[in-house]
Design a protein that fits this description.
Elements (H helix, E strand, L loop, with lengths): L2 H32 L5 H40 L1
Length: about 80
């Protein structure tokens, strides 16, 4: 093989890689323009809903954990 054909092949690969990268990021940019971004009031409302949901689920898990710990402790005392 000649040196010229090897460098042309790798230059072609670099150009293809560069073009595909440009197309990818152009596509991302175009899709991000279509996104409906929430305003400040909506964002605060959504944040509140998430925080309350997490607190509620944490409370449920804590209640079940405490109940199971209590039951296992009683079983251990009864049979140990």
């Amino acid at each position: 093989m000649a040196k010229g054909s090897v460098s042309t092949g790798s230059e072609s690969k670099i150009k293809d890689w560069w073009e595909s990268g440009k197309q990818y990021f152009t596509g991302i940019y175009n899709e991000m323009k279509k996104v409906h971004w929430p305003g400040r009031v909506q964002l605060l409302g959504y944040t509140g809903v998430v925080l309350l949901s997490v607190a509620f689920i944490a409370l449920i898990v804590w209640i079940f954990d405490s109940g199971l710990s209590f039951l296992l402790e009683r079983l251990m005392k009864a049979f140990a």
